[in-house]
Amino acid sequence: MKVLLLGDRFITNEIWKEALEKRFAGSGVIFSYAQHQLQWPVVPMESNEEVSEYSGTDEELLPLVADAEVILTHTGCITRRVLDNAPELKVIALGRGGPVNVNTAACTERKIPVIYAPGRNSGAVAEFTVGLIMAQSRNIPLSHHCLRYENQWRGDLYANEHVGSELSCCTLGLVGFGAIGSKVAKIMHDGFGSHVLIYDPYIPDEVKAKYPDYVFTELDTVLSQSDFISLHTKYTKETAGIISAEKIALMKPGSILINTARPQLVDYDALYAALKTGALGGAGLDVFEDEPPKAASRLYELENVTATPHLGGASRQAAAIGAAIAVDEVYGYLQEGRAPRFQFNKF
């Protein structure tokens, strides 16, 4: 079987190869490989009118795909032009939560399944979210910065008006209760004893019944009663700007907003104003309108903001899990003849 490995600096070709050979062990399948190394995340992703969030170019892939039966990638630029040069291609598998870097319509025309790996980084993002909550609420990044870079001993951060609260005494509000949100809830409730409020209109009653310790309620209630609000919903027409100036005004004085989901969920200008005036206590932000930013954001200047460069899903386990899920789907499709569970383009 001829396989093209399009690894990057997160899911490397070595990870892809290990996952593939482990899953196909004992099958009798012999692989021949073509490999190409992409440079994301050291080099930022790009987007065009056809595909988005990709690394490298389609031009560099053209000589590699001629004999490929399987493409395994995370961020490769899979355009119609690439597909037109891959007559033997049977399946494309990605170790990420959505195949935005693949022309799925063109794949559907060829009846080529596009496989992806939903939930592969849910554990990583959930842990990172809790890390931001703790970092922001207890002034960890601020005090580190002052000591490390300004040689300041910030004893004033021990003053009662500046110290945070222990998580056992706090209310966590979640906007979205999918794979990530549910794990954040478990860590915060079971691990720290936090009270949990949840807004997610798509959770059916029978699922809610499985979580008697959590309170499922309306968005305004979550915002007005929570000490921490963490966003874990998808970006859709319905959720765009869900945290607007009006909604930010409902939040408790001193509360903290955490966003490890999508920047389009939040009116960042309104958030800046609330943080600047002290209406909100702080924010932990892992996503921004421009990534990387074209210019320094005003948000970076605020002491009550913890900002990270979209690292929530970055763990060794997330990389390995993404590859393993995708490869397992390839095995089922090619060796067992079953329809992939995580096929994006149904036909």
From TrEMBL:
InterPro entries: D-2-hydroxyacid_DH, D-isomer_2_OHA_DH_cat_dom, D-isomer_DH_CS, D-isomer_DH_NAD-bd, NAD(P)-bd_dom_sf. Pfam families: 2-Hacid_dh (PF00389), 2-Hacid_dh_C (PF02826). SUPFAM superfamilies: Formate/glycerate dehydrogenase catalytic domain-like (SSF52283), NAD(P)-binding Rossmann-fold domains (SSF51735). Residues 55-339 form the D-isomer specific 2-hydroxyacid dehydrogenase catalytic domain. Residues 131-312 form the D-isomer specific 2-hydroxyacid dehydrogenase NAD-binding domain. Keywords: NAD, Oxidoreductase. One of its GO terms (molecular function) is oxidoreductase activity, acting on the CH-OH group of donors, NAD or NADP as acceptor. Belongs to the D-isomer specific 2-hydroxyacid dehydrogenase family. This is 2-hydroxyacid dehydrogenase. It comes from Lawsonibacter faecis.
